[in-house]
């Protein structure tokens, strides 16, 4: 499970809830059907208008991505894997990797290695795998855009809800006791709009963009490794090409691990 998302949600709701109590406001004030209707249903309406049903059907999957940690190979393990394949390929030929490819869990890596083993031209492999990355990034941008739009519209709908509430309050100026409650209820919509927009939807969009960038970088790393194996590069060349995708700390750790294995 992606624990950071859960921690963020708990902290966000706690901050607002405890903050309201410390300010002397009652949490029951948030139970405002009109405000909830305007903000939640209104936000949902905007994405239905702005996106197709095909896009919206992906929302459950997008939530799953944010709450579940993706099962991907680490960069360090990927470097080790390519170094091993390079050694085998240079000693026994690239066709010797055919059985190993069938055991690969990652579809992108399995497809790329399969094309290299089948003897496809390096430019063809690069073009196909780059297009795969581009298509993936486009899909991910569309998914993140849904949450970005929700984050944009929700605060504005909060202002709309406040205006509606103030209209109701101004129509009851003769009832002093009810006036205070009506004004308070009017600003609940603003609170809900700002909270959902800037604590929920925009951060979720940012997380989806971040996960997309990391996945794309990992695939570009795989692409470089695949092309290096096809070109017959040695292990040192593989390390030089793939180390650029690692942080300085990861490079140091991996170098120490490789040195320890040699000794």
UniProtKB/TrEMBL annotation:
Q: Which organism is it from?
A: Desulfitobacterium dichloroeliminans (strain LMG P-21439 / DCA1)
Where does the MotA/TolQ/ExbB proton channel domain lie?
102-218
**Cellular location of this protein?**
Cell membrane
Q: What is this protein called?
A: Flagellar motor component
Q: Which residues form the Motility protein A N-terminal domain?
A: 6-74
Kindly give the NCBIfam families that the UniProt entry links to this protein: PRK08124.1
Record-annotated membrane-spanning stretches: 29-51, 144-170, 182-201
Q: What is its main location?
A: membrane
Which protein family is named in the record? Belongs to the MotA family.
User: Topology with regard to the membrane?
Assistant: Multi-pass membrane protein
What InterPro entries does its record include? Flag_MotA_CS, MotA-like, MotA_ExbB_proton_chnl, MotA_N
């Amino acid at each position: 499970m992606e624990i950071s998302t859960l921690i963020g949600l708990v902290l966000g709701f706690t901050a607002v809830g405890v903050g309201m109590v410390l300010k002397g406001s009652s949490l029951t004030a948030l139970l405002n059907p009109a405000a909830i209707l305007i903000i939640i249903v209104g936000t949902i309406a905007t994405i239905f208008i702005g996106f197709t049903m095909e896009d919206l059907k992906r929302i459950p999957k997008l939530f799953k991505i944010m709450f579940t940690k993706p099962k991907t190979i680490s960069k360090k393990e990927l470097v080790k894997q390519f170094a091993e394949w390079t050694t085998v390929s240079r000693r026994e030929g690239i066709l010797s990797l055919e059985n190993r490819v069938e055991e690969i869990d990652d579809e992108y890596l399995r497809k790329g290695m399969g094309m290299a083993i089948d003897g496809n031209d390096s430019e063809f492999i690069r073009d196909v795998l780059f297009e795969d990355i581009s298509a993936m990034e486009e899909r991910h941008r569309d998914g993140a855009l849904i949450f970005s739009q929700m984050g944009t519209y929700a605060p504005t709908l909060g202002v709309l809800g406040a205006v509606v509430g103030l209209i109701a309050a101004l129509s009851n100026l003769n009832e002093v006791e009810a006036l205070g409650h009506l004004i308070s209820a009017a600003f609940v919509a603003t609170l809900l709009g700002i909270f959902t927009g800037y604590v929920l939807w925009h951060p979720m969009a940012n997380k989806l963009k971040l996960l997309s960038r990391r996945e794309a970088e990992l695939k570009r790393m795989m692409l470089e490794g695949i092309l290096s194996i096809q070109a017959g590069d040695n292990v040192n060349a593989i390390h030089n090409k793939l180390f650029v995708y690692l942080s300085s700390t990861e490079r140091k750790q991996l170098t120490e691990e490789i040195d320890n294995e040699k000794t």
